[in-house]
Design a protein that fits this description.
globular; alpha/beta; 4-stranded mixed beta sheet; about 280 residues; 2 domains; single chain
Length: about 280
């Protein structure tokens, strides 16, 4: 049994929150470089260059990439041979978020409850935490920073099995079309197909954590991703909604077994910063 101390988890989470808000990941930078080569609109090209300039300033000055520093969403793979000394895993993650958003001067965007008392918690907690027990003696943590503009454009629909692949495609494309400029394109589109109501949403969110543009390992799913990306980029929404051929950097699709009578489909959209980080402790 391997012991990992509470404070070690806190320190790593704190640094992840700041890094995700200050620096574009290498895969996102590569997506921008590719988009600058393929974008056909001069205005779209200029927008892409300005976004890249903003990211360089943010990294150099240790400033947030965006004024919306988001809600911290974690996917945790907890090795079954790990013992956490000094406290609970969830408490360590929330303390790391608390410290990261304070030390990093990041905007706190979480309210205590959604309807009757929307009072800010003042430290961006509680985080959203999904935990899975896996073999091994490590903790793998993946972070997604979910901005309000993107989250508000997410959608889920319980299709009928008879709707088939074309029904799935139409729902995804309609969701991106209806989102327009709101999620700050170029976006990454996460699609979850299968499971049940909540599982489809979870795997759609998790799909955003895959390196941008990395295809699904299954060839048929990868072909679906490619087709959806082509159709989405034909919508003409373009960078920050000003028109162009780069509405999305990538479409990531994840599947899960489901009931014979169901075809759940969820779409979760990540903004042009695609703020995600991962660590192994």
């Amino acid at each position: 049994m391997r012991r990992i101390h509470f404070n070690d988890i806190v320190d790593n989470i704190r640094d992840m929150c700041m890094d995700a808000n200050y620096n574009l990941s290498a895969d996102v930078i590569a997506a921008y470089e590719k988009a600058l080569e393929t974008e056909k609109s001069p205005l779209g090209q200029e927008v892409l260059r300005q976004i890249m300039q903003n990211s360089e300033i943010a990294s150099k000055e240790a400033m947030p990439l965006c004024q919306d520093t988001g809600l911290a969403v974690f996917f945790v793979e907890l090795g079954q041979d790990v013992s956490i000394a000094g406290g609970l895993l969830s408490d360590a993650i929330n303390e790391g978020v608390r410290q990261g958003y304070s030390k990093g001067y990041l905007r706190k965007s979480v309210v205590e409850e959604p309807i009757f008392n929307r009072r800010n918690t003042s430290d961006n907690t509680p985080a959203i935490i999904h935990t899975e027990i896996v073999p091994g003696e490590n903790i793998r943590i993946k972070l997604d920073i979910a901005g309000g503009g993107c989250e508000n454009m997410a959608s889920l629909k319980m299709l009928r099995p008879a709707d088939g692949i074309e029904g799935v495609k139409q729902f995804v494309i309609d969701t991106v079309r209806n989102a327009g400029a709101n999620p700050c394109p170029p976006v990454v589109v996460g699609v979850g197909i299968g499971g049940d109501f909540e599982k489809a949403a979870i795997i759609a969110k998790k799909a955003l954590l895959r390196p941008v543009g990395q295809p699904n390992a299954r060839m048929d799913v990868a072909a679906l991703e490619e087709d959806l990306l082509k159709r989405i980029n034909h919508l003409g929404i373009g960078p920050v909604g000003l028109g162009g051929t780069t509405t999305a950097f990538a479409v990531h699709v994840e599947l899960h077994p489901c009931h014979i009578a169901s075809l759940p489909v969820a779409v979760n959209i990540g903004c042009h910063s695609s703020r995600h980080k991962s660590i192994v402790i």
